[in-house]
Protein: methylmalonyl-CoA epimerase
Organism: Gymnodinialimonas ceratoperidinii
Amino acid sequence: MIGRLNHVAIAVPDLDAAAALYRDTLGAKVGPPQDEPDHGVTVIFITLPNTKIELLYPLGDNSPIGSFLEKNPAGGIHHICYEVENILEARDKLKADGARVLGTGEPKIGAHGKPVLFLHPKDFSGTLVELEQV
Amino acid sequence: MIGRLNHVAIAVPDLDAAAALYRDTLGAKVGPPQDEPDHGVTVIFITLPNTKIELLYPLGDNSPIGSFLEKNPAGGIHHICYEVENILEARDKLKADGARVLGTGEPKIGAHGKPVLFLHPKDFSGTLVELEQV
């Protein structure tokens, strides 16, 4: 069912410092900051040859990243995103197998403009998993 | 400097359950368990079209995964691994930029039989980073 690893998302307490680290010290291709007010984050995409790293920083008062950074002040890996061909089929299969889909269970439009769902970390070895339809 | 994302490593409290989840529920290509006594882990590789997921489970009394699982009983993402062409050049550049290399600073032979180094999470937004020479 799952296809490519679309991205690894890392929540960071200092977006400029993290971008500089990936650009100057690790020598990666680092994009500009993009505000995503619908998702409560400012995002920087780092393009690797085979996948992406997303740096996430809180935007606004109700950012989903805010509480994560309170618990992990140095930052940390927030989630991983797998691609699926059909997100509704994927969701129904997951629910039939007993996995919990977060929120209403209906896909939302994610930061890439594609339908996404998030799965409960407790059902996936402590890992917050995003599914994105591509 | 960094190239492909070689793998994302997830520490899991139940290797069989995590393998079944990725194979049966997520429909991924899941390999057999491999004991790596030199690294204190049993590993299962999950092959995605563009990268790998490594499931890590403690092996022996001094596993580096043991304390991680004590802190994160449900499991969690343990590290991410970037490929580099020349690990000694990468190390020297990182040290010159003030990043801390774990252990002796000399590369070890990793689970894939290639030279690896680990970088201090505090210098990389709370993320344990492995570099692997390919």
The longest strand of chain A covers residues 76-84.
